[in-house]
Amino acid sequence: MENSILLQELKSKFEKSILSVDETADILTVTVAADSIKPIVAFLKNDQDFIYLTDLCGIHYPELEKELGVIYHLHNLVANKRIRLKAFVTKANPQIDSLVSLFSAANWMERETFDFYGIDFVGHPNLIRILNVEYMDYHPMRKEYPLEDATRSDKDDSFFGR
Amino acid sequence: MSENKDKTYTVVDAPEGYSAPGFFATTLDKAVGLARKNSLWPLPFATSCCGIEFMATMGAHYDLGRFGAERLSFSPRQADLLMVMGTIAKKMAPVVQQVYEQMAEPRWVIAVGACASSGGVFDTYSVLQGIDKVVPVDVYVPGCPPRPEQIIDGFMKIQELVGNEPLRRRYSAEYKELLESYGIKIDR
Amino acid sequence: MKTINSEHHLDLTQVDEKVYSTLNLGPTHPATHGIFQNVLTMNGETIVGAEQTIGYIHRAFEKIAERRPYYQITTLTDRLNYCSSPINNIGWHLAVEKLLGVETNKRVDYMRIIVMELARIADHLVCNSVIGVDSGALTGFVYVFEEREAIYEIYEELCGARLTTNLGRVGGFDRDFSPLAIQKIRTLMKRLPKILHEFENLLMRNRIFMDRTVNVGGISAERALNYGFSGPNLRATGIDYDVRVQEPYSSYNDFDFIVPVGENGDIYDRFCVRQTEMWESIKMINTALENLPEGKFCTEVPAFFLPPKEDVYSKMEPLISHFKMVMGEIDVPEKEIYSAVEAGNGELGFYLVADGGRTPYRLHFRRPGFIYYQAFPEIIEGASLSDAILTMSSMNVIAGELDA
């Protein structure tokens, strides 16, 4: 399966939604508008045989206007072709469609992304924290939060040059 | 084979005491301690990598059964020794404390591995920085993960503590104060 | 259940209403081999529904990875699937090599294959013997653990550690295989077939074992793909997806091996797939040992490969590169990659975004166990409790990998 054919198919269907294409990366990378992620993935799954959702994760670029991103890796097992989709949302309105109705695998991956980045997957059946404690009041993978436990008092930071 | 015949094997060493033909006298503390330390029932609270090394410790090669601890008690009610092996996240901390509360006196705790002792390499928002934040610990075993020999060494340290513990210790005011400092209820 | 109303007459309107009981399995249940919590809704002995809670050993790996130089992340990968840490280590090295565009020589590739296949054997030995334990046969477990101990001794000879190996470096290994290590591997490869045969004789055609496992805990190929299954669990359903074949890394394409597949995706098929994979691993290790190419045990990646210690103490250039590497002052290209390896229980992927700095900008681990464990409630619905325990151990879910 050639990149150009796949891109042509995608562009003919979703011309307005495809924001940028990067063919230099190891996997064909397409950045799409957040509101059209579900129809694009559905098209890839049903018409192009990308039946395997390899991975779904979040990313945070504080300097961008749309800070939070969701990155999807899909795999066409027959043609052995991978594709990477990216969709970005703002921190104020981090809504994006859930893929649970297409891939059962997306369920926990989306919950993890919500837990880490606070991205709201619209239509997810059970969007609650998965790895962290329920009473946690922030999304720890966002860049502004520290790695260390902020409540720790037994450590003298001056020894660590901080 | 013949040279082995002269060897004498002692299962346990007799405590200090007075003996003459027909009798042996020692303190009650020591007799009870001797019995206790050679029949500890561990509760393996294994969460991650150290638990796998504990499996090796229990296996035929290292065989913790030689120390009278082959009977694992998965129910805290019948356990004497809580062996916490692996990372304890903040989500898990109340569970550790609850398991400790469910154990009957006298009870001992051994923190196996760097994570259980101090949080280890995981100085993060989600990891409890050592189980001594929630339960009192008797012996710490360093290592990430410790080798089975080290786990056995830690176990022998516990045996030493158990053997030398006065019977009154668990009724003392200091002990009650210790438990209260962890917020652990005392049923007696 | 029958209920009696206040006048002590049988209330016939409620006779047929089912009353379900709730059973809390975990997080410290002896039968679950790890920290998993399942709140089961039971109708007698039959499971009606299950609600999973995970995260009991969440250690924030991905956040730590954003604060550590590349070579320090190897220690994190150890603690993902700790039953087969060398595969994770080498998977991470391969990911960094892909980022840097480094090609390793054949000797490194073959050495890696030997180590990875040893780790796969260790992983499968644990999983399959635990299936035995949960179906009531402790003997096999105690027996094959001796062989796993032998594999640990080989790791020790290679890198000094038993379990969390931190094995190898970016670009190869920190030292060559010692003659003793090669001898130990050869001895094990001679002995292991006999042990595996005995283990299979004990279980594979055992009436009790087959009754407990055939057509129990199965999943269809379609559902498995939808759930993102990978590794032996996916192959047991009949899908021959193996990363080693689909996207050969580390010269796996030089080797001739079978990818075993099952039919029903049940516990017995998973068991057999793992068993066959061990036989294939033994063949691969033997072939790799016989054809071990000449060459250096590492590729020169100056920014990542620590120079030999004697050079650091006596020469200027190695000292500088040693210092730069330890302080993380290295140049990496600004790009993103996805690199996957076939770990003991599935496709272990590394999605790495580099911004040119000393640490990754973002590193996401695709943990196979995390993705396929969510199918557990669907698989065990309608099964009995004892079958659920067996299903869980046959899925080879490792808590460290699940919670990251």
Ordered list of secondary-structure elements with their pairings:
The complex is a heterotrimer of chains A (162), B (188) and C (404).
Chain A (H helix, E strand, L loop, with lengths): L2 H11 L4 E5 L5 E5 L4 H11 L4 E9 L7 E9 L4 E9 L5 E3 L8 H12 L2 E3 L40
Parallel strand pairs in A: 2-5, 6-7
Antiparallel strand pairs in A: 1-2, 3-4, 4-5
Chain B lengths: L1 H4 L12 E3 L2 E3 L2 H10 L4 E5 L2 H10 L22 E5 L7 H10 L5 E5 L1 H5 L20 E3 L6 H16 L9 H9 L7
Parallel strand pairs in B: 3-4, 4-5, 5-6
Antiparallel strand pairs in B: 1-2
Helix pairs in contact in B: 2-6, 3-6
Chain C lengths: L20 E5 L11 E7 L2 E8 L7 H5 L8 H5 L6 H16 L5 H29 L3 H22 L19 H25 L3 H7 L7 H6 L5 H4 L7 H4 L20 H24 L18 H6 L1 H12 L8 E8 L2 E8 L8 E5 L1 H5 L3 H5 L4 H10 L4 H5 L1
Helix pairs in contact in C: 3-4, 4-5, 4-11, 4-16, 5-6, 6-11
What does the model show?
The complex is a heterotrimer of chains A (162), B (188) and C (404). Chain A has 162 residues and is of the alpha/beta class. Chain A has helices at residues 3-13, 37-47, 106-117; strands at residues 18-22, 28-32, 52-60, 68-76, 81-89, 95-97, 120-122. In chain A, helix 3 (106-117) links the parallel strand 6 and strand 7 (120-122). The model of chain A has no long low-confidence stretch (mean pLDDT 88). Chain B has a single domain, classed as 3-Layer(aba) Sandwich (Rossmann fold). Chain B has seven helices and six strands, in the order αββαβαβαβαβαα. Chain B has helices spanning 2-5, 28-37, 49-58, 93-102, 114-118, 148-163, 173-181, and strands at 18-20, 23-25, 42-46, 81-85, 108-112, 139-141. Chain C folds into two domains: 12-53, no CATH class; 61-403, Cytochrome-c3 Hydrogenase, chain B (Orthogonal Bundle), CATH 1.10.645.10. In chain C, 47% of the residues lie in helices and 10% in strands. Chain C has helices spanning 61-65, 74-78, 85-100, 106-134, 138-159, 179-203, 207-213, 221-226, 232-235, 243-246, 267-290, 309-314, 316-327, 368-372, 376-380, 385-394, 399-403; strands spanning 21-25, 37-43, 46-53, 336-343, 346-353, 362-366. In chain C, strand 4 (336-343) and strand 5 form a beta hairpin. Chain C starts with 20 loop residues before the first strand and ends with a helix. The model of chain C is unreliable at 1-6 (pLDDT under 50). Chains A and C meet through strand 3 and helix 3 of A and helix 1, helix 8, strand 4, strand 5 and strand 6 of C.
